[in-house]
C-alpha cells in the first residue's frame, strides 16, 4: 500500500465538516453577534466589539423576566430529572418480568413520542383547567414535560436491564442480602452511568422544551417561552447575549454530568483493584 487515502475519505470528511458547520454555525453566529458594541444591531457587519450586551442582561430589563424564567426552567428541569430517573428505574425493574398487559403498557408509554407536542400541551392544559386545577409551570407544565422525558428514560432503562447480568444479584442474595440491599448495593452502582445519562436526558429535554410548555406554563414563562417572546419585541443583541449564556450553561451541565460519570468510573476501578489485592 502506498499510504494514500481513497477519494471517498475526502468526500466523507468534507460532508462531515459541512454537517458540523450546519449544526454549530447558527450558534457560533449568535455568539459572535452577542459581542457587538453598544450601537450594534441584529445582523452583520458588527459595529464594534464589547461586553455591553452581557452587562445589559444583568440590569433591569424593560421587557421580560429573563432571570425569573431561568430560575423556573432550572427548578422545573431538576423536578423532571429526579422524577424521570426514579420512575425509569422502577419501570425498568418492573418490566424485567413479563406481566399481564406489559406489551400494551409499553406501547402506551412510547405513544406520547409520536403525538404532536402541541396537542399534548393543549390536552394537559384543558384537563387542568376543566378540573379546576391551577394551570402552572410547576404542576401542569411538570406533567406535560414528563410525557416527553419519561419515554426516553424508560427506553434507556429497558435496554440497560436487558443486558444486565443477573448473576451479580444472585451472588448478593447468596450472601444473605435482602432485595432492597441487592438493589442499593449491587444494581444501582452498576447502572449508575446509565442513570446519569437518564438524568441528563431528563434535565436537558425539560430545560429547552417549548411546545409542551406553551399551553401549560400558566402566567409565568419558562426560559424557552421567554426567549420566544423576546424575539417579537427585542431589537438589540441582548437576545444574542442571552443565547450565548444559555448555550454556555448547557455545555456546563453536560460537562458536570460527564465529569460525574468519569469520577464514578474511576471509583469503581479503584474499588475493583482494592478488592483484587485483598483476595491476593
UniProtKB/TrEMBL annotation:
**Gene3D superfamilies the UniProt entry points to:** MetI-like
Record InterPro entries:
Bact_Polyamine_Transport, MetI-like, MetI-like_sf
Which compartments is it annotated to reside in? Cell membrane
BP GO terms, sorted: transmembrane transport
**Protein's UniProt keywords contain Oxidoreductase:** no
Q: How does it sit in the membrane?
A: Multi-pass membrane protein
- Transmembrane ranges, per UniProt, are 9-35, 74-95, 104-128, 148-165, 186-207, 238-264
GO CC, any one term: plasma membrane
Ranges for the ABC transmembrane type-1 domain?
70-263
Q: Does the keyword Nucleotide-binding apply?
A: no
Give the source's domain of life in one word.
Bacteria
Q: Which UniProt keywords apply?
A: Cell membrane, Membrane, Transmembrane, Transmembrane helix, Transport
Q: Which family does it belong to?
A: Belongs to the binding-protein-dependent transport system permease family. CysTW subfamily.
PANTHER family in the record: PUTRESCINE TRANSPORT SYSTEM PERMEASE PROTEIN POTI
How is this protein named in the record? ABC transporter permease
- The organism encoding this protein is Meridianimarinicoccus roseus
Amino acid at each position: 500500500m502506498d499510504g494514500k487515502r481513497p477519494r471517498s475519505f475526502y468526500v466523507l470528511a468534507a460532508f462531515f465538516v459541512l454537517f458540523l458547520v450546519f449544526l454549530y454555525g447558527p450558534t457560533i453566529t449568535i455568539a459572535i453577534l452577542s459581542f457587538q458594541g453598544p450601537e450594534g444591531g441584529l445582523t452583520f457587519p458588527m459595529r464594534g466589539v464589547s461586553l455591553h450586551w452581557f452587562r445589559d442582561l444583568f440590569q433591569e430589563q424593560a421587557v421580560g423576566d429573563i432571570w425569573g424564567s431561568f430560575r423556573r426552567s432550572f427548578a422545573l428541569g431538576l423536578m423532571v430529572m429526579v422524577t424521570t430517573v426514579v420512575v425509569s428505574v422502577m419501570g425498568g425493574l418492573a418490566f424485567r418480568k413479563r406481566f399481564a398487559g406489559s406489551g400494551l403498557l409499553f406501547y402506551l408509554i412510547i405513544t406520547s413520542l409520536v403525538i404532536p407536542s402541541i396537542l399534548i400541551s393543549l390536552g394537559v392544559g384543558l384537563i387542568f383547567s376543566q378540573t379546576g386545577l391551577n394551570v402552572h409551570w410547576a404542576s401542569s407544565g411538570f406533567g406535560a414535560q414528563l410525557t416527553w422525558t419519561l419515554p426516553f428514560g424508560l427506553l434507556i432503562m429497558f435496554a440497560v436491564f436487558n443486558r444486565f447480568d443477573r448473576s451479580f444479584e444472585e451472588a448478593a442474595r447468596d450472601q444473605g442480602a435482602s432485595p432492597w440491599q441487592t438493589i442499593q448495593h449491587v444494581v444501582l452502582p452498576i447502572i449508575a452511568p446509565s442513570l446519569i445519562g437518564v438524568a441528563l436526558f431528563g434535565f436537558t429535554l425539560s430545560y429547552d422544551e417549548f411546545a409542551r410548555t406553551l399551553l401549560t406554563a400558566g402566567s409565568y414563562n419558562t426560559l424557552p417561552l421567554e426567549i420566544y417572546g423576546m424575539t417579537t419585541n427585542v431589537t438589540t443583541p441582548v437576545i444574542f447575549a442571552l443565547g450565548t449564556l444559555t448555550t454556555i450553561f448547557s455545555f456546563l451541565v453536560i460537562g458536570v454530568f460527564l465529569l460525574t460519570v468519569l469520577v464514578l468510573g474511576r471509583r469503581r476501578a479503584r474499588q475493583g483493584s482494592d478488592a483484587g489485592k485483598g483476595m491476593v
